[in-house]
């Protein structure tokens, strides 16, 4: 029984550490290879030993696909390829390929240099790992091997984010990665065609949220920032270096320009320079507005936004600072947060999702006192605001995508279990398709009924067409032919051709049946009576009386003979070939009912 | 002398010969088209050759009388031809030929149908069906032929090629009979149910055929056939088609049906409720606003705007994304879902942790898709493509105009759109807001957002916003104050907006007198005890404040009491200088110049208008004065009119127009007064500068009169043309007097007579009004003129010019002189625009045009280089905007280039009005029907400069090597 098996190693009923194994049509594909922000031990990487206990991963996996450059989707890649050992192809889009190593390097620096972790991957490993990457373009069908093909679709979310369709024969799976159905200031909306996959694996971060119009959100955000700045307060916006940061930068930049504000805007880390460079490069991946106006001015060349220096944090007066990372779990954003947390004039705006266990999650859930390292207690007086700027599709967006792709079943990953539950119910109810939400390590098996293409010879098709009316899409048609299975391909040919090809002689199968009739007349007369009887009944068929006394109906032969024992009974010999089975059996049943009484002299 | 005589004789002789030649030319018969074609086709050795001949043939138009012959030849060749591409071309030619005006294609019919039956190639078949379509459309009166064609189409519907099926459906859509029981003919041809046949092809396997079927159905609707309601369900199924063009067409079809049967009841699937069809269709189209293809989204968003019969609660859902429950089921369910919402079942996305799903009973009631109208506009307005957003804004506008409650609700969304990233969308939403502003009152926070846009750097946006504020309703005095402050800020930032801001404040004041009242002391900074300093009268900001206050004071009699002394003085000054912005106030106890004018004078009785009429009448009635007196009177009147035009801006058009006419007359009289004419023999001297200059000037003036004024009617055009004809006559006479040799004169004579003929043809209807005029007499003498020699013609013309009377120019109702002001470049810069010679530099040109008709084709930009080289630039049609009636703005870029100069120099930039008097000639009918577009009719005959020229300092640098 053909089937598709899906096992999440990460992101099953959870956010972070995305890693999903898919077996389809005998091929094994790993989707994403991320790390978890909330953990600093072994749990931060997926458990690759699940894939194969003792054996090389390369032998088992056909390819790895990375949907976008966020660390929770690609953070474990060097560990996986260099330390665990994988030499097969890794597929990602061009922007992802360009930006991914920067982020990995940044991540490595924080882990190794700041926290002093040992046994972490090295810069060289990142480089080696990136050498295994094969870049794909949007809507380009890439043949991984002869049977497995993948295709990328635009996903919004961040620069270079893509959804991937994985196809083997007629079976296919679509993995969305993270995506966004509403366009923002720098990226467009996700789009997929009606590809009707067997399974759609979709993220469900905002399974229970239906967001307001983005314009209200933007206005709220600008208003909050503006008010704080006018009060003389400082605004901290923890962001990930890439993605939301660029959108918010464009938003603030245009606002500053319009309102003629003077307060400085800073962007932390040198990473931005490099990242913005890539945004300037990959203009084709951005939204309509930026694509259309970049000739006059590239929107990513900011006028008001300057690089941040650590010393600036202590400067008096208002300022806006974008600092990484976005969940306040480490790095510069946490440092600045500690400095500013005590002043109620200041404000921190969390523009995205925060994983459980991070400082960001704690302050958002209302904690006003935080225990920091070294038993320090930090009291938070600054205002904490949450703006849902996260570029994930909301419940309606997810439903919209499901509607667009028309899958046979849906599998939810990258979300919290109880929220998934709600969405699962909705999907099952409204699309009437199965919906799964496996936990990490839990396998979902999906039986499929792949359609098998069969080649038909044109001659046969035309001959069959000529017999009936035009083909009607709604009605199945019966077709006579021979199915030849040879070297795993199937052909339907006419029986004559099949015989010729296989070098076989034609055999005829004949059925013969005897029908006893009470008739005391001579054989010829009986035959005559049978003839006239059949002639009157079968008006559509060609009924003939042959000179040797036998009767034919089409190719069916009927002969009358006297019964050897009982002269009052005549035996009718009915003989037909296998092809005429239908007519033959009909005739026999007809004859078994007996002949009508003869017009002259009743018996 | 003898030599001279000889020469004259010779000239006379040659002239006669010429005349013969010309007549001969006219009688030249055209070679038979069909014969030539036949020869060509027979010559063709290969199909490629034949195709070439046919292509060449197709480039020239064919006259109606020779069509039949050509068709025969083509058909004959068709039968013989084996190559499908040639047959295809012939078929297409047949179609084109049958469209020729004056040719009845019924004779081709039989042949076309005949060859159709034997044709094997699908492409040729499709083309032949197209030909049939052309024939059928031409013979739309003939029922029998139509039925025959429809029969043929039905027969070929089962063809395997999509192209053929497409054409068949198109035929059915265009020709399928409208009434069901027209078979009075004894032939007994059963009228087919076209709708049913077309409907069957909604489920064709080819998406192109499905699209064609829907289009055919829409075509039937357009032709007036009432579509059955059963189509609705079929169309609904097509909404989920895989192909965008099918979905797009299906959306249109659904819209059509919903307009036809708005009140029918349709059941809701999966429940036993029923709703109105228009509501159901509205929900379905709303759903398409989130379709995968943006083409469909645009289509759906556009159509939403015209569905006015939809129930209001459906309409309001379109703005409510959060309302997810399937509202169509029950009214109570609607209420319940709303409660669920307000209790926070769904996260607004602004608070952390409020998005945990509640117990299952509640979630079960929520429907995430299929909720039809829910949030359609919210989606549309934040769509990725600006085309969709614009369509959504337009639709909002249309719906809001028909429902004031909806207008109130959509306000927030429109205000949000003011911050869109694409300027076009912002502009569109501001315009929309203006259109619906009668229905709404702006809240303060909305006003705040709106006013934020005043700082926009785009002038279009700011001006649109001023227009919006002109007709906005503001609810509080703080709002008014806020608006004023922001407008003044705008004024300080962009001083060029002055007029627009003043106008805006004028309306703002007159609409909200009671809100302005409490603000007056603050605005005028008066103090109860102390006198404050008198503000500067020339400060545009102060004028702006006064405009607001005075307009409010007009309907608020208590307000003047709050004014200080200098305010009254300033009022008197502004009432005089800016009379269009400051209304007349009734100020009790004050003796002011303006109060002498009683306010109840109606514009019709305006003394200035009367004055204009009187002075014109005086001129027209006193035409038999002695020449000297006439001249003087004309001069005085022209002077008066010009002055009047300067004083009264609303009469400027009329005054200028009349003055121009009088000036022409004056010039004509002056020219005829010249001594030159008194000499009997031609002098061939350069003495007649004045006369020829006058002729030229009259010509110019007449062109200006004809093309520079908007609102000129036909009766004025006649008079203007008549004046021009006189000028031409004058020119002819002067030439005859001053030029030796008869060659030139002969040509001019010919041309003049042609002009007269042309005049007669164009204005045949108006000739009775021209009693006793120059042309009237001229036409009487026409037969004589044609036969006489040039010298004679000149003599006749001269006497007639002198005897001709002065025609009365009837004044049009509304007449405005076209004018243009170049705002940018300002021409003040001392820094030359440097560029490398040989390359181009782009110069931004920004100009306002007033009262220009069809500026896209007439307005040109001229650049004059110091070396006398002139360059004319045709701006793109998209460079013109239309901010208000009669006003246009030209924002374009002019590319300058020149060879290197040694030092910077100035180039002149000005605007021209191009005209072409030939555009008034009625086109001959066969030209339109021709295969080739008649070219050269949009050519420019001449240009009139109508703006002041601006100097731009440029410096082409030599290229560095």
From TrEMBL, chain A:
Its cofactor is Zn(2+). Residues 16-233 form the Metallo-beta-lactamase domain. SMART domains: Beta-Casp, Lactamase_B. The keyword Metal-binding applies. GO terms for biological process: RNA polymerase II transcription initiation surveillance; snRNA processing. The keyword Transcription regulation does not apply. GO terms for cellular component: cytoplasm; integrator complex. GO terms for molecular function: hydrolase activity; metal ion binding; RNA endonuclease activity. It comes from the Eukaryota. Residues 245-363 form the Beta-Casp domain. It is found in: Cytoplasm; Nucleus. Keywords: Cytoplasm, Hydrolase, Metal-binding, Nucleus, Zinc. InterPro entries: Beta_Casp, INTS11-like_MBL-fold, IntS11_C, MBL, Metallo-B-lactamas, RibonucZ/Hydroxyglut_hydro, RMMBL. Its main location: cytoplasm. Component of the Integrator complex, composed of core subunits INTS1, INTS2, INTS3, INTS4, INTS5, INTS6, INTS7, INTS8, INTS9/RC74, INTS10, INTS11/CPSF3L, INTS12, INTS13, INTS14 and INTS15. The core complex associates with protein phosphatase 2A subunits PPP2CA and PPP2R1A, to form the Integrator-PP2A (INTAC) complex. INTS11 is part of the RNA endonuclease subcomplex, composed of INTS4, INTS9, INTS11 and inositol hexakisphosphate (InsP6). Interacts with WDR73; interaction is required for the assembly of the RNA endonuclease subcomplex in the cytoplasm. Belongs to the metallo-beta-lactamase superfamily. RNA-metabolizing metallo-beta-lactamase-like family. INTS11 subfamily. This is Integrator complex subunit 11. It comes from Pipistrellus kuhlii (Kuhl's pipistrelle).
TrEMBL record, chain B:
SUPFAM superfamilies: ARM repeat. Its main location: cytoplasm. The lineage of its organism: Eukaryota, Metazoa, Chordata, Craniata, Vertebrata. Component of the Integrator complex, composed of core subunits INTS1, INTS2, INTS3, INTS4, INTS5, INTS6, INTS7, INTS8, INTS9/RC74, INTS10, INTS11/CPSF3L, INTS12, INTS13, INTS14 and INTS15. The core complex associates with protein phosphatase 2A subunits PPP2CA and PPP2R1A, to form the Integrator-PP2A (INTAC) complex. INTS4 is part of the RNA endonuclease subcomplex, composed of INTS4, INTS9, INTS11 and inositol hexakisphosphate (InsP6). Interacts with BRAT1; interaction is required for the assembly of the RNA endonuclease subcomplex. Residues 821-958 form the Integrator complex subunit 4/Protein SIEL C-terminal Ig-like domain. Pfam families: HEAT_2, INTS4_8HBD, INTS4_C, PDS5. One of its GO terms (cellular component) is integrator complex. One of its GO terms (biological process) is snRNA processing. It comes from the Eukaryota. InterPro entries: ARM-like, ARM-type_fold, INTS4_8HBD, INTS4_C. This is Integrator complex subunit 4. Keywords: Acetylation, Cytoplasm, Isopeptide bond, Nucleus, Repeat, Ubl conjugation. Residues 610-812 form the INTS4 8 helical bundle domain. It is found in: Cytoplasm; Nucleus. Belongs to the Integrator subunit 4 family.
């Amino acid at each position: 029984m053909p089937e598709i098996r899906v096992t999440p190693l990460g992101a099953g009923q959870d956010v972070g550490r995305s890693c999903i194994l898919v077996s389809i049509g005998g091929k094994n594909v790993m989707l994403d290879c991320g790390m978890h922000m909330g953990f600093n031990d072994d749990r931060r990487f997926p458990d690759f030993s699940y894939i194969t206990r003792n054996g090389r991963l390369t032998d088992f996996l056909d390819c790895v696909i990375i949907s976008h450059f966020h660390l929770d989707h690609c953070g474990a890649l060097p560990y996986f390829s260099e330390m665990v050992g994988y030499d097969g192809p890794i597929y990602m889009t061009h922007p992802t390929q360009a930006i991914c190593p920067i982020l990995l390097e940044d991540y490595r620096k924080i882990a190794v240099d700041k926290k002093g972790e040992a046994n972490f991957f090295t810069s060289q490993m990142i480089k080696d790992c990136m050498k295994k990457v094969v870049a794909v373009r949007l809507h380009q069908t890439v043949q991984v091997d002869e049977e497995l093909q993948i295709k990328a679709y635009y996903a919004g979310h961040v620069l270079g984010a893509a959804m991937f369709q994985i196809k083997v024969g007629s079976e296919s799976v679509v993995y969305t990665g993270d995506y966004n159905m509403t366009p923002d200031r720098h990226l467009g909306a996700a789009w997929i065609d009606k590809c009707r996959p067997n399974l759609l694996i979709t993220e469900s971060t905002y399974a229970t949220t239906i967001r307001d119009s983005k314009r209200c959100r933007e206005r709220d955000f600008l208003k909050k920032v503006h008010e704080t700045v006018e009060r003389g307060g400082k605004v901290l916006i923890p962001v990930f270096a890439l993605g939301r940061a660029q959108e918010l930068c464009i938003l603030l930049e245009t606002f500053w320009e319009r309102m003629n504000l003077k307060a400085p805007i800073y962007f932390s880390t040198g990473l931005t320079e490099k990242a913005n460079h890539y945004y300037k490069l990959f203009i084709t991946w951005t939204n309509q507005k930026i694509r259309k106006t970049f000739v006059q001015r590239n929107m990513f060349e900011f006028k008001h936004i300057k690089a941040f220096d650590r010393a600036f944090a202590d400067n008096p007066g208002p300022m806006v600072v974008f600092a990484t990372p976005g969940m306040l779990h480490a790095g510069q954003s946490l440092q600045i947060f500690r400095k500013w947390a005590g002043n109620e004039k200041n404000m921190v705006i969390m523009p995205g999702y925060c994983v459980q266990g991070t400082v960001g999650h704690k302050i958002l859930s209302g904690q006003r006192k935080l225990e920091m390292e070294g038993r320090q207690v930090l009291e938070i007086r600054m205002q904490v605001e949450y703006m849902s700027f996260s570029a994930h599709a909301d419940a309606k967006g997810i439903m919209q995508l499901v509607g667009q792709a028309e899958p046979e079943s849906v599998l939810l990953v990258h979300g919290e279990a109880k929220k998934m539950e709600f969405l699962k119910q909705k999907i099952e109810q409204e699309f009437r398709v199965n919906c799964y939400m496996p936990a990490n390590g839990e396998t979902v098996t999906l039986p499929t009924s792949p359609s098998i293409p069969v080649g038909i010879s044109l001659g046969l098709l035309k001959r069959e067409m000529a017999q009936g009316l035009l083909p009607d899409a709604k009605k199945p048609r019966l077709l006579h032919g021979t199915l030849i299975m040879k070297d795993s391909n199937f052909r339907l040919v006419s029986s004559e051709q099949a015989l010729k090809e296989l070098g076989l002689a034609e055999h005829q199968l004949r059925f013969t049946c005897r029908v006893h009739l009470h008739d005391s007349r001579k054989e010829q007369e009986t035959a005559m009576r049978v003839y006239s009887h059949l002639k009157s009944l079968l008006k559509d068929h060609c009924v003939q009386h042959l000179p040797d006394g036998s009767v034919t109906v089409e190719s069916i032969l009927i002969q009358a003979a006297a019964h050897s024992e009982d002269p009052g009974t005549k035996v009718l010999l009915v003989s037909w070939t296998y092809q005429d089975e239908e007519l033959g059996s009909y005739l026999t049943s007809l004859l078994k009912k007996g002949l009508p009484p003869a017009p002259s002299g009743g018996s | 002398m003898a030599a001279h005589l000889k020469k004259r004789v010779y000239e006379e002789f040659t002239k006669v010969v010429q005349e013969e030649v010309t007549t001969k030319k006219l009688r030249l018969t055209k070679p038979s088209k069909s014969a030539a074609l036949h020869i060509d086709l027979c010559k063709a050795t290969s199909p490629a050759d034949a195709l070439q001949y046919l292509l060449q043939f197709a480039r020239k138009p064919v006259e109606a009388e020779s069509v039949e012959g050509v068709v025969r030849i083509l058909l004959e060749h068709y039968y013989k031809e084996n190559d499908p591409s040639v047959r295809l071309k012939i078929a297409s030619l047949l179609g084109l030929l049958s469209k020729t005006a004056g040719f009845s294609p019924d004779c081709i019919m039989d042949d076309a149908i005949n060859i159709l039956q034997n044709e094997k190639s699908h492409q040729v078949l499709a083309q032949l069906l197209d030909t049939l379509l052309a024939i059928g459309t031409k013979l739309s009166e003939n029922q029998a032929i139509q039925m025959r064609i429809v029969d043929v189409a039905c027969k070929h519907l089962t063809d395997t090629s999509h192209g053929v099926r497409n054409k068949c459906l198109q035929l059915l859509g265009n020709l399928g009979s409208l009434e069901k029981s027209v078979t009075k003919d004894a032939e007994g041809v059963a009228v087919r149910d076209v709708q049913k046949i077309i409907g069957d092809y909604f489920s064709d396997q080819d998406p192109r055929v499905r699209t064609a079927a829907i289009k055919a159905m829409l075509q039937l609707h357009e032709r007036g056939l009432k579509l059955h309601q059963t189509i609705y369900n079929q169309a609904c199924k097509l909404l989920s088609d895989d192909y965008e063009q099918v979905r797009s067409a299906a959306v249109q079809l659904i819209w059509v049906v919903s307009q036809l049967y708005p009140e029918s009841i349709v059941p809701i699937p999966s429940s036993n409720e029923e709703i109105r069809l228009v509501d159901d269709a509205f929900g379905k189209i709303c759903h398409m606003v989130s379709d995968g293809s943006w083409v469909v989204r645009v289509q759906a968003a556009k159509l939403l705007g015209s569905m006015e019969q939809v129930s209001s609660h459906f309409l309001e859902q379109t703005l409510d994304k959060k309302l997810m429950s399937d509202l169509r089921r029950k009214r109570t369910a609607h209420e319940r879902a709303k409660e669920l919402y307000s209790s926070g079942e769904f996260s607004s996305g602004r608070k952390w942790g409020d998005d945990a799903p509640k117990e299952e009973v509640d979630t079960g009631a929520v429907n995430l898709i299929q909720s039809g109208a829910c949030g359609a506009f919210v989606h549309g307005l934040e769509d990725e493509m600006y085309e969709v957003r614009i369509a959504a804004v337009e639709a909002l506008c249309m719906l809001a105009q028909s429902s004031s409650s909806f207008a109130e609700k959509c306000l927030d969304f429109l205000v949000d759109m003011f911050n869109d990233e694409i300027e076009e969308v912002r502009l569109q939403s501001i315009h929309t807001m203006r259109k619906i502003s009668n229905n709404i009152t702006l809240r303060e926070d909305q006003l705040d957002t709106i006013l934020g846009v005043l700082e926009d750097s785009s002038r279009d946006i700011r001006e649109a916003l001023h227009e919006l504020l002109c007709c906005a309703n503001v609810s509080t005095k703080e709002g008014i104050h806020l608006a004023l402050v922001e407008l003044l800020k705008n004024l300080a930032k962009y001083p060029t907006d002055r007029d627009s801001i003043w106008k805006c404040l004028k309306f703002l004041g007159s609409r909200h007198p009671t809100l302005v009242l409490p603000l007056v002391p603050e605005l005028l900074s008066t103090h109860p005890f102390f006198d404050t300093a008198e503000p500067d009268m020339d400060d545009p900001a102060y004028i702006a404040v006064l405009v607001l206050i005075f307009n409010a004071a007009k309907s608020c009699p208590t307000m003047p009491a709050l004014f200080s002394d200098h305010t009254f003085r300033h009022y008197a000054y502004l009432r005089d200088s800016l009379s269009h912005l400051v209304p007349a106030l009734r100020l009790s106890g004050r003796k002011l110049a303006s109060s002498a004018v009683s306010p109840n004078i109606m514009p019709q009785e305006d003394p200035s208008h009367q004055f204009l009429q009187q002075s014109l009448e005086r001129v027209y009635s006193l035409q038999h004065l002695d020449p000297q007196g006439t001249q003087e009177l004309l001069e005085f009147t022209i002077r008066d009119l010009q002055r009047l035009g300067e004083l009264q801006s609303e009469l400027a058009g009329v005054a200028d127009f009349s003055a121009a006419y009088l000036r022409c007359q004056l010039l004509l009289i002056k020219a005829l007064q010249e001594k030159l004419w008194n000499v009997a023999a031609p002098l061939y001297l350069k003495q007649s500068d004045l006369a020829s200059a006058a002729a030229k000037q009259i010509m110019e003036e007449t062109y200006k009169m004809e093309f520079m004024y908007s609102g000129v009617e036909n009766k004025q055009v006649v008079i203007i043309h008549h004046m021009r004809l006189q000028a031409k006559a004058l020119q002819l006479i002067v030439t005859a007097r001053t030029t030796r040799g008869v060659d030139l004169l002969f040509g001019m004579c010919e041309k003049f007579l042609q002009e007269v003929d042309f005049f007669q043809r164009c204005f045949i209807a108006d000739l009775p009004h021209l009693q006793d005029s120059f042309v009237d007499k001229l036409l009487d003498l026409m037969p004589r003129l044609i036969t006489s020699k040039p010298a004679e013609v000149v003599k006749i013309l001269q006497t007639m010019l002198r005897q001709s009377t002065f025609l009365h120019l009837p004044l049009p109702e509304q007449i405005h002189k076209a004018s243009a002001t170049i705002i940018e470049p300002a021409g003040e810069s001392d820094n030359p625009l440097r560029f490398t010679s040989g390359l181009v530099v782009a110069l931004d040109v920004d100009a306002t045009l007033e009262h220009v008709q069809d500026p896209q084709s007439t307005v040109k930009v001229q650049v004059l280089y110091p070396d006398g080289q002139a360059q004319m630039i045709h701006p793109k049609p998209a460079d013109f905007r239309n901010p208000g009636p009669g006003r246009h703005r030209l924002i374009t870029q002019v590319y300058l280039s020149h060879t290197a100069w040694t030092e910077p120099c100035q180039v002149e930039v000005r605007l021209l009005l191009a005209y072409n008097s030939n555009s008034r000639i009625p086109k001959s009918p066969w030209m339109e029907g021709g295969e080739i577009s008649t070219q050269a009719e949009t050519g420019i005959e001449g240009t009139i400069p109508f703006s002041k020229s601006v100097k731009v300092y440029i410096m082409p640098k030599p290229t560095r090597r």
